Model the fold of this input.
Amino acid sequence: MTTPEAPAPEAPGAFKAPTGPGFDPESVRRDFPVLHRTVNGHPLVWLDNGATTQKPRQVIETLAGFYATANSNIHRGAHTMAREATEAYEGSRAAVASFLGAASPDDIVFTRGTTEAVNLVAQTWGRANLGAGDEILVPVLEHHSNIVPWQMIAKERRARVVPVPLLPDGQIDQDAFADLLSYRTQLVALSHASNVLGTVPPVREMTALAHRYGAKVLVDGAQSVAHFPVDVQALDADFYVFSGHKLFGPTGIGALYGKPEVLAAMRPWQGGGNMIESVEFGRTTFAAVPHLLEAGTGNIAGALGLHAAIDWLTSQDRTAVTAYEQALTEYAVQALATVPGLELLGSAPERISVLTFTVAGYDPATIAEWLDRDGIAVRAGHHCAQPALRHYGLESAARASLALYNTPREVDTLTASLHSMQQGGDDPAREAMKWP
Done:
């Protein structure tokens, strides 16, 4: 326990709100029921947004409303509810296309999420286009979901996964990337934002360079879509994938965007209902994309919930939201710098609000458990990004990831709890952070 004479934590300074049209996080917090619960006697401070975002009531009500009043299968029914469900499902596809800047809803394939979307591309496009000696370039900062599927198909096709190194600040080494590209490169698999370092690479420039060698580019947008607008046509990405649950939507739903000519050349990954035109024992005729790649009954309610999440997010001033998140991230970096022994990983100039850190003398799991006592949810472990952590000589770290509904006071609560952890127990600074 600390003594009354223990020094108070150094203050990080006042939060500097961005100039221009304001954004009020308190107004959006009212849409999120879970943010008003308590954990271990403290108001919940949800800083695990990189793992999953919380859901606004508009999404929750959409899911409940579908099952309560509109539940039906799609595409194969002539009755009223089947037609209504089909229209709503395909309306969700159109909403995703608009959200990503795709030219047509037919460019969107529904999946269970980012992981399934990457595996779909690996097992369809990859199986048809990769051969012995071909190369797949994958930066070291990638999530395991954008590494392992390529290792699996590369082994099968006798191709090779080539890692692209990082610079000390967590940026992708662009000189190394340019040197590694060759006419053996068939695909570049690239995150739009890193889940462990927050790094936002120059995706458009890297894509243009890869295309000079005839390579395709898959962009993992799981961490980016909630933080800034995306235009897949401006990026010129061949594939773009994301998960609904990191976009304030439900789990179990996500999407794959593909350029029309690339999707049209892909063959089925799974067989069954919905992806066929006609079935005989001698011959089966397949449906056109996107249905070709959507065997069986999809997550209908999830697609509607994703539509609701997109509507909710795009109703916000996204320019103001991005500016607010950047200001909050800068404030958090300054606040955490007051914690003795705390080291942040990555300092790329372009980054989202992901703060992965270590504290000297403390195991990351211990840090997360301590913070949980104060109602603060962070993640600890390898974050499914072991190569990125090993770039810093680590096997594990703690991560606080922010979203538009987080506040400077929550950053202060996190900082005070970390100070208290180092001081061995309760102290006046931590008590001051408790909300009434």
